[in-house]
What we know:
With 265 residues, the chain is α+β, with helices and mostly antiparallel strands. Helices cover 50% and strands 19% of the residues.
Amino acid sequence: MRFLLITFFLLFSVLTVTTFKTQASAAYSPQVHRLHIGDIFSFQDGEAWQTIKILDIQTEAQTQTTVHVLIYQLSESKPTLHALRTQPILTYHTPVSQTLFSSKWFYIGNTTPQKSELKSYIKYLKNNDFKKYAEVTNQKVDDLIFRANTLYTKGYALSQAAQYQQAIAAYEQAISVFPLYYEAIDKIGFAYMDMGEFEKAIKYFDRSLEVYPKGTTALYYKGMSYINLEDLENALATFKQGMEKFPEQKETFEEMYQSLSKLTL
């Protein structure tokens, strides 16, 4: 089995802070404020107030700072920390650029993000920054990978025994532990192919390619699934895509493409 954990670990970013000036108002004095986790800011948009809370701050390659925020629903009056305790939440997590913050924003105060406020952000980390996900959930990456591998091995054994539904369940468990485990996603596609459910297989090969766009195996067997569905048009398009996207594997895709082309003459 091949793992590209190094690639995923390189996605890990360190926390940083950014400085900007907040606007003067009757309620909030002007100041130079450094962004911190838990900071709450608001600005007036027409007659309504838009308020956000910082969940995390990340800098990628020391050049681009991304601020992860929670967004409250609009309020008619200028917000306070006390009022925000009962203010409904519009979006629990969205990443924004640090450039969003300008002189239009007022600093309200700081409150530590609660577990309920961090659920969506943690889910985002699990699918995009696995190392940091393990860190913020007090888990070890090696332990998580070991657990995922154990479930993968169980799924493989079940597949070999033609117990495909049980195998799929094991592979899904492996993916739930490690969402970037594209080999396990591929194996679910193969299991559905073995069961003759080629449309479902294609969905999983597409899912695998979303996680790992360089997956030649997923793309090739996506094309093979289209062949089994007698959908030659999409099969041709898939193998042509492989020829163009993976020049180092061009011959493999080209062979199938040419064979199918003869059938359409």
